[in-house]
Structures are given as C-alpha cells and as structure tokens.
Design a protein that fits this description.
With 505 residues, the protein is of the alpha+beta class. The chain has three domains: 129 residues, 434 Repressor (Amino-terminal Domain) (Orthogonal Bundle); 122 residues, Arc Repressor Mutant, subunit A, CATH 1.10.10; 193 residues, no CATH class. Helices cover 50% and strands 13% of the residues.
C-alpha cells in the first residue's frame, strides 16, 4: 500500500505519543532525556514534523524501544483503526478544509483518547459494511453536508456567471435556447458537438451525454428535450469557464471516482442553473408568486415555462435562491423514483437546510409514509392516465403535520413520467417548515383548498391505527410499547418488593 509522507509523519507522531504515555513521561521529561525542545516534540506528535535519524535514535533510547519498531508503520491494535482511516482513499480525497477542518487537528483529537476514538471509528466502519456503504455514497453524503453548510447558495459561482456574461458579451435573451449555448461551446471554447442517438451502443441508450476529452467533443443524445440540452451545454460551459479539470465524462455518470469529481459536477451544474435562471429575475417572480392569496399551481408552472426549465432544474434553483433572498432556510428537497404498478419507492436525492427535516432516508428498508405528497402525487398521475388527461408535469401542494411532533411542512411536489419509459416516473418535493417567517413570506400558506394531512416518517414508526395507506405493520412502535410495558411492570415489581421488605422488618 502506498503511504504518503504526511501519513508517515502522522503515524509516527501517534506512536510516539502513545509510547510516551505508556512510559508515564511528560513532554518536559522526554525533552530533558533527549535534548529536544518541548515545542519540537509537540510538533512531531502532531504529525507536522518528522525527526532525523539521530533524533529518532535518541527517542528510541528514552522510550526503551527498538529503533526499527519506532519507525515501522506497523501499529498496535489500539491504533489500527486510526491508521486504517488515514490510509483510506475517502479521507485522502475529501478536502477537509471545505468544512473548516485541519487534518492535523483531526489526528490530534484521535491521539487524545485513542481507545474511545478507535471504538468510534470501528463502529463507523462496521456500520458502513453492514449497510453496504461505499466510497461513492460517502462522497455524495459529504457533498450534501457541504451544500447544507452553505445553505446551497454559492456567491462565488453566482458571480462567475455574471463575469462570464460580461466577458463573452452574452445575449441574455438567448440563454434559454440550446442552439445558442451549443454555438458558444463551439465558437468560444473550441468544442465539437455531435447530437446523435447512440444506437451503436445499446448500453448507452439512457446516457444523455458523453464527453471525449482528447477530442474536446461532446456526444449529446438527440432524443433529449431542448431544456435538457440547454442545461448540458450550460454545464459544459461551466466546466470550461471555471477551469474544472477532474470530471465525469457521462451524464448521468456510471460511478464517482473522487470527491473532487463530485464537487466539480456540483459546481458546473450550479453554474448552468444560475446561467439559465438568473437569480434576481427569479427572486422577483417568486416574490410575486408568494404574494398570491390563493395557491395557484398554474402560476408556478408559468414561471417554470418562462425559463424553459425542467422541473428538477427549477427546484434545485429554488434551493439556491429561497434561503438567500427570502430568509426561508428551514427547508428540504427530496426526489422519489417509482415504477408504475410496483409498491417500491426509492429516494434518490435529498438535501436538508438548517436542520435534518422529515422526511428523509429511512434505515433498514423501512416503508416511506404513503401519505407524503411526494408519493400520493403518483396516484394522481395514474388517475389522470386512466382518464387520458395526463399532459405533463403535475404540481401538487400539501400541508404535512408530523405525528408526535410540532413540525408542520408546506410541501410542493412535482411529478412526471419518463418520455423513454412511460412506466418510470419520479417526483420532486420542496418542503418548507411552516414557521413565522414562512407565514409572513408566503401569503397562501393557509389556503383551505390545500390538503392538510397527518404524516409520519415511515409505516414502521407510525402509531396511527386507522391508516388505510399503511404499507407495513408498526414494528418500531410495537417494540417501543413492549419495552415501555416491561419497564412499567419492572417498576411495579420493584415497588411491591420494596413494600414487602419494609413490612417484614
């Protein structure tokens, strides 16, 4: 296994600190016996410096340990999980500085209480194995955390779009035109663009685009809608203008290979969304929409149509804009995939701002609450299909009151079916926590025509006895009740025995 110099320093420092602690020596005492300053020894233990051979020899003598054992990268059982984490590609590739974390500080925390930290790390690794979590999932989880940290608004990317428009003298009235963006790629960035159906490669039939780096050529599936092509071209412009090198070559990609690749994809996508849907203009449109006295899905659909946007790109852009311009940062976004005729629902995307809101991904394959607007909208779609009335994206609103919680959310859901596979459909839901700020900004929040329903996280955790939509028994609730009954019986038993003991004295 290839180990970088930084890890060698860190492992040596961890071993030195552990050996010193085992000998009961303070840094001052070790300094006196080796002739090295306390500050220098402290730097070594933190992994910032690596001593020369003569100093390592002095440390070995002072700690009564073999020189080879001290410099060896082999560690004892207590430090093994720490070095395993240090050498993992996940930790090497995730830029901790994005989260304000210094790698040396992280290792210093590990070294303070190695036994407890190691137990924690071992638990994480075991959980990852149990739930089959891989590096790619960790990359995306880290990206979500990064977006949540910034409330999914990146002013540097917004400014980059403004700079691009000025520098290249862009006609902003043409930005919703995929052909205009394609010509920008060709004429300004030297791209070759080939819109074609990948019939020669059946395995690529669901791929929207393929980027061939050596030829600076992009193959775009000709079956895509104009707004999908516009987003792809805007994203390619983002890659070039932002000078993002490490990237995926397909959309959607087959597998994320590094965190930088995932991060760059987010940046290029954000750039495209900001290019196609200008923030100030959208904020003005939303101000007008939020001021309506009644919920009007048609008015929202007209805003989406104005920007020649897909529902998904529009919802993502709302996440960028709403917290910044309206101060509504207690919100979430989820995407649910579903196949017609099946009872399974798959949450493929989720982003929570301000705090972890419900709904969110459930553990152990629990069944999502069937009362969520993100799921009931599929029933609405099927009814429209039965009556030959389905015409495209459906927009639905619902007030969701979580059982056993004070939290109530105003959920706006969008759903449509795939053009390539009509049995495949997906929903996008943007949920706002209904608080004083939301009530002031969104006038139609209490429109009586908007359905209000009690919901829960999952069927397994729901105590409702009269739920007709239930997809699974309330196993979690039943277990909790059994434990509560046991604890109550134990308390009664203990109290009776205490009274008997008192009366027999």
């Amino acid at each position: 296994m290839k180990i970088d110099r930084e890890n060698i320093r860190l492992i040596f420092g961890l071993k030195l600190k552990q050996l010193r602690a085992q000998k009961g020596l303070s840094l001052v005492e070790l300094s006196a016996s080796t002739g090295m300053s306390v500050s220098y020894l402290n730097e070594i233990e933190k992994g910032k410096k690596y001593p020369k051979e003569d100093k390592i020899a002095a440390l070995a003598v002072a700690l009564d340990v073999d020189y080879d054992k001290l410099v060896s990268l082999k560690v004892n059982k207590s430090l093994a999980p720490v070095t395993q984490l240090l050498n993992s590609p996940v930790l090497r590739e995730i830029p901790l500085d994005l989260f304000g974390i210094e790698r040396n500080k992280l290792i210093e925390i590990m070294s303070i209480a190695p036994a407890k930290v190691n137990a924690f790390i071992s638990t994480l690794i075991e959980l990852a194995r149990k739930y089959d979590l891989n590096e790619e999932q960790f990359y995306f989880a880290s990206l979500r955390s990064y977006q949540e940290l910034h409330e999914d608004h990146f002013e540097d990317l917004e400014k980059a779009v403004e700079d691009f428009i000025k520098e290249y003298d862009i006609d902003i009235k043409q930005l919703d035109n995929s052909e205009y963006l394609k010509q920008l790629l060709v004429n300004r960035f030297g791209y070759e663009v080939d819109e074609t159906e990948p019939s020669e490669y059946p395995a690529l039939s669901d791929v929207r685009s393929v980027f061939i780096e050596d030829a600076k050529k992009i193959l775009v599936n000709e079956q895509l809608a104009d707004n999908q092509k516009a987003f792809l071209y805007g994203k390619e412009i983002g890659y070039q203008f932002l000078q993002l090198k490490e990237r995926a070559v397909t959309t959607p990609w087959s597998k994320a290979k590094s965190f930088e690749q995932v991060l760059n994809n987010m940046k290029a996508s954000y750039f495209s969304g900001a290019l196609l849907i200008p923030k100030n203009e959208l904020a003005t449109d939303l101000e007008r929409f939020f001021s309506l006295k009644k919920w009007n899905p048609k008015a929202l659909a007209e805003i989406i149509s104005k920007y020649n946007s897909s529902a998904e790109m529009f919802v993502h852009r709302l996440m960028n804009i709403v917290p910044k311009f309206f101060g509504l940062n207690s919100l979430f976004f989820i995407r649910i995939n579903h196949n017609k005729g099946q009872k399974l629902f798959d949450m493929t995307k989720e982003l929570h701002l301000s705090q972890q809101h419900n709904p969110h991904g459930n553990a152990m394959l629990e069944h999502y609450c069937r009362r969520w607007s993100a799921l009931t909208i599929f029933n609405e779609m099927e009814e429209l299909e039965k009556n030959n009335a389905y015409k495209g994206t459906i927009i639905h609103a619902q007030r969701s009151q979580y059982i056993d919680s004070k939290n109530e959310y105003f959920c706006i859901s969008f759903a449509r079916r795939s053009k390539r596979d009509p049995d495949f459909r997906f929903s996008l839901t943007l949920g706002f926590l209904i608080n004083n700020d939301f009530r002031k900004k969104v006038i139609f929040w209490d429109d009586p025509n908007i359905a209000a329903r009690e919901v829960n996280q999952s069927c397994e955790r729901c105590p409702l006895s009269d739920c007709t939509e239930r997809a699974a028994p309330p196993h979690v609730i039943n277990k909790k009740l059994r434990i509560e009954r046991m604890e109550k019986a134990m308390d009664e038993l203990m109290e009776r025995e205490k009274q008997l003991a008192t009366s027999n004295k």
